[in-house]
Design a protein that fits this description.
22-stranded antiparallel β-barrel; 921 residues; 7 helices; 52 strands; 5-stranded mixed sheet
Length: 921
């Protein structure tokens, strides 16, 4: 009986399936010489089924037999209705070439084609069609939310949060676990303290869209565990010029009293061209030799001014040239902005094993920052050849004055110790990229794509100098030469070259109508060589040291007078460690197979073999400076498999599964044997013995797209990390002077869930037409186990704990309202909120609990208006809640804490108000 029942059930299912029909086809773009038109909307009028064409212009529906109308639409193009009849079991192919709505609008139509991937709806449709798990954000959404840089924009993507000065955390993993591509080409960081270029240096004007890959594919580098971010620079094809200007005010920052180095208080520094006066005097020679020299051009003085408003300016122009029957498009954009920032709060460290403060200081920082960027883009499109050039220049400067008042090294009896840091930092980044694709056959079955990139970067921290003494009043200190007073540091890294390239062959095969199967074979790799130099001098008294009182902002004349009478001189005390040479290389070959087993099931399986080399040439602190370099090499061959599976449960919903293996390299500074010393006794020390981590990743995702503008997704993910790299505090024999360093732990596991929704609220009530709600959250459980064989591991307070840097939860949400004021004024208002959970900043040792970064709640409001398609106005309120940022010692301490507060760092950012206007013609 059961067998009969099963037989009839199967028979009924087969008959039911056989009664359905399939309609599929390809939509081509007449205005682009019949190239596939991606992201066109295709609707079955009678059943309300809808989908969007994929990157090859293909679409497909399954439906009962009957008479139907196919509706094809695309913004700026004709709307085409095609009536058809389909029989049970029939597969009907309907192809169509879609044309623009008219000759006069042809230029606008072409623009829409090129900009399609910058739109929210198009990127959402691409996410639905892709086999791999990825998310994207385009210039349209960045603009709507009032976002001025890429880093802030990426925090709107599920699982991503930002920590001030520390970059992006993705799936709970901090900067070192992420990787960056620009136009699918590897690029270096321009800071030794960051794994990737700080993305707040990318203004949104130079960006078309950004892809975030949370799962591994063989055509990207294996160095990531959080995500690989691919920034696609703008390739505008519309002839236009745009001029923009903006200004901003932040409470307790702008128009407040502001301390600025005398060297930087000039128009040259205002526009980011200062810093030359801070160079190490040539009298010290090219190699340290304990020389004495006093020919410095940089002043110790500081000017007290009123911080002006923040400003930003930008100009861009794009157009095209005719090249025979083809077009050469070009775009140029340049942006400049400056910002004044004040941070004030406590700055403490605990003495190891004693339960009391080592340092107990009040800190106030004054930062004047500039950022400049320039982009030149060229794009040639022929019948079979597409070729692009991108030249990108980024420059940042930061002038910092930092005052600390309190006591250090447990010296409670001296509560008015004063420490001033006067620091200048500059980074330069210049990339040249050539990339494109070529159809080996006219039907695109055989094709090549590739590119090459050459990048130079420079990072300078010249004449980083300290003054110490005892505070007498707000304007005067008592100081004495010697110890860490008048310490000057010169730190720079020159990336002599960074070259990267890729080349990929693609073969499409299978069904004649769509060639949906694809085999790819390729290479991608990079090589870079850089030199780091760290030199320092001290102001030493020549005939004893007597304390004296001096105005703290006008101390330079006192110092120069003492130099003139030979009472004081600056002597270099750099050691043999002053110079390190670094060579890094990665070479990967891969193969990748995209296979469509049927209309519902797709496989993307691949394998990448990647060889990495990291070589250091260095000298030990005990070596004579003239000794030859020692060498330390880290060489690894990684075999990195990956599998991505997509199953279309229905036309509007997918189930995805992905597994892979990847690896993680340390941040450059983390792996350099450089000890950065501060006058308050704190230091940061690299560790050249760090090993790469190996990561094993798994993801399971369900997603549904009810309409082209809506989406819901739920993801489960897991990671196992072998030898994770973590931040800790180095054990100290005296218990005084906190040293931050880095080490490999034994292993870590991470289990998490992500939920994401984008909903048009009109589905609940027609009065809410124009309102939409975006929401995403991540929940994580992590566990890290210490390596009991690691030197110093017995000093760790816990043998198991959360993974350093990982939040257990985070949340992003935004409420948007789109409305018109008349026919020529389109408006968008957005309220954006995000928060992340508590995470370990540094691992606890000597009986102390860990140092935690506490949750930070951020609420922003953005209103934008477009008038006559020429004027764009924007008003934004940033950080409305203005919460206190805190870094705090945990409460699970194994020793008695004598102090009343566990807060180690705190400050407020202020509430920011900004407005901008742009005109396009």
């Amino acid at each position: 009986m059961k067998i009969k029942f099963l037989f009839f059930a199967v028979l009924f299912s087969v008959i039911s399936w056989a009664q359905n029909a399939t309609v599929k086809g390809q939509i081509l773009d007449k205005e682009m010489k019949n190239e596939p038109l991606p992201f066109a909307t295709v609707i079955i009028k009678e059943s309300k089924q809808n989908t969007a064409t994929d990157e090859n212009g293909n679409y497909s529906f399954t439906m009962p037999a009957g008479n139907y109308t196919l509706v094809i639409t695309y913004l700026g193009y004709e709307t085409k209705e095609i009536s058809f009849t389909v029989a049970a079991g029939e597969v009907k192919v309907i192809n169509h070439i879609l044309a623009s709505t008219g000759g006069e609008e042809l230029k606008e139509v072409v623009v829409e084609v090129q900009y399609s991937r910058e739109k929210e709806s198009a990127l959402l449709q691409e996410q639905q069609k892709a086999v791999e798990i990825k998310q994207s954000i385009g210039s349209q959404e960045l603009s709507r939310k009032g976002i001025s840089d890429v880093e802030e924009g990426l925090t709107k993507i599920t699982g991503i949060s930002k920590v001030e000065s520390k970059g992006l955390f993705i799936r709970g993993l901090e900067d070192r676990y992420n990787n960056l591509l620009v136009n699918n080409l590897a690029v270096p960081s321009n800071s030794p303290f960051k794994k990737i270029i700080p993305l707040d240096q990318f203004p949104t004007d130079v960006v078309g869209y950004i892809d975030v890959f949370k799962t591994f594919n063989p055509n990207i580098y294996g160095d990531f565990a959080g995500a690989t971010i691919d920034v696609k620079t703008s390739q505008n094809t519309k002839g236009q010029t745009k001029i923009s200007f903006g200004t901003g005010f932040t409470t307790d920052n702008n128009l407040s009293d502001f301390l600025l180095s005398k060297d930087a208080n000039n128009s040259k520094s205002y526009f980011g061209f200062g810093g030359q006066e801070r160079k190490l005097p040539s009298g010290y020679g090219s190699v340290p030799a304990g020389r004495i020299n006093n020919d410095y051009n940089s002043s110790w003085d500081v000017n007290k001014v009123k911080a002006p408003l923040n400003t930003s300016t930008g100009i861009s122009h794009s157009g095209k040239f005719d090249v025979g029957s083809n077009n050469l498009y070009y775009v140029f954009a340049t942006n400049f902005d400056n910002k004044y920032q004040i941070r004030e709060g406590v700055d403490r460290t605990f003495s190891q094993g004693q339960g009391i403060y080592d340092n107990n200081l009040e800190k106030k920082q004054f930062k004047f920052q500039t950022q400049a960027s320039s982009l030149l883009g060229l794009q040639f499109k022929g019948d079979r050849l597409k070729f692009n050039y991108t030249g990108l220049y980024l420059k940042t400067t930061e002038n910092l004055i930092q005052d600390q008042v309190g006591y250090t090294r447990t010296a409670v009896q001296n509560p008015n110790e004063f420490i001033r840091l006067n620091q200048y930092e500059q980074s330069d980044y210049f990339a040249n990229q050539f990339f494109g694709s070529y159809k080996l056959t006219s039907d695109d079955k055989h094709s090549l794509n590739g590119g090459i990139s050459y990048t130079r970067t420079k990072y300078n921290q010249p004449d980083r100098k300290f003054i110490t003494g005892t505070k007498i009043s707000d304007t005067e200190i008592n100081t004495q030469y010697g110890s860490n007073n008048l310490l000057r540091q010169f730190f720079n890294i020159d990336n002599n070259f960074h070259m990267s390239g890729n080349l990929e062959y693609n073969y499409k095969f299978g069904n004649i109508e769509n060639n949906r199967n694809k085999l790819s074979v390729g290479y991608s790799g990079f090589a870079e060589y850089m030199v780091s130099k760290f030199r320092f001098t001290f102001g030493n008294p020549n005939n004893g040291a007597a304390p004296y009182n001096t105005p703290v902002n006008d101390i330079d004349s006192f110092i120069q007078d003492d130099i003139a009478i030979n009472f004081l001189s600056f002597t270099e005390q750099s050691t043999a460690e002053w110079k390190t040479k670094v060579f890094q290389r990665a070479d990967g070959v891969y193969t990748n197979l995209l296979l469509n087993l049927n209309e519902k099931l797709e496989f993307n399986v691949g394998l990448r073999a990647e060889n990495t080399i990291r070589e250091y040439k260095y000298k030990s602190i005990v070596d004579p400076i003239t000794n030859p370099y020692r060498s330390k090499t880290n060489n690894n061959l990684y075999i990195l498999p990956s599998l991505n599976v997509k199953y279309a449960l229905k036309d509007d919903r997918n189930l995805r599964f992905a597994v892979s293996k990847t690896y993680t390299k340390p941040v450059l500074f983390e792996s350099l044997d450089i000890n950065l010393i501060n006058a308050d006794g704190t230091t940061e020390l690299g560790n050249s013995d760090l090993e790469n981590s190996e990561n094993y990743n798994a993801d399971l995702k369900f997603e549904i797209f009810p309409t082209p503008k809506e989406m819901f997704a739920a993801t489960l993910f897991a990671k196992y990390i072998d030898q994770p790299i973590e931040r800790t505090i180095l054990a100290s024999a005296t218990g005084s002077g906190q040293t931050i360093t880095y080490f490999n732990n034994n292993s870590a596991t991470l289990f998490g869930a992500e939920f994401e929704a984008l909903v048009q609220l009109s589905r609940f009530n027609e009065n809410l037409d124009g309102f939409s709600l975006g929401f995403n959250t991540s929940l994580m459980l992590t566990e890290s186990k210490i390596d009991l064989k690691r030197p110093g591991s017995d000093f760790d307070t816990f043998t198991k704990r959360n993974l350093q840097g990982a939040s257990n939860w985070l949340l992003n949400t935004d409420l948007k309202y789109e409305f018109d004021l008349g026919s020529n004024c389109k408006n968008t208002a957005s309220l954006v909120y995000n928060v992340y959970g508590e995470r370990i900043y540094a691992v606890g040792i000597a009986g102390y609990d860990h140092i935690y970064e506490k949750p930070f709640h951020k609420l922003d409001f953005v209103w934008g208006s477009s008038i006559n398609k020429k004027w764009d106005l924007k008003f934004a309120v940033d950080n409305i809640l203005n919460p206190l940022y805190t870094r705090e010692r945990g409460t699970d301490n194994k020793i008695t804490i004598e102090e009343s507060s566990l807060v180690e760092q705190s400050y407020k950012r202020g509430v920011g108000f900004s407005t901008s206007i742009s005109y396009t013609f």
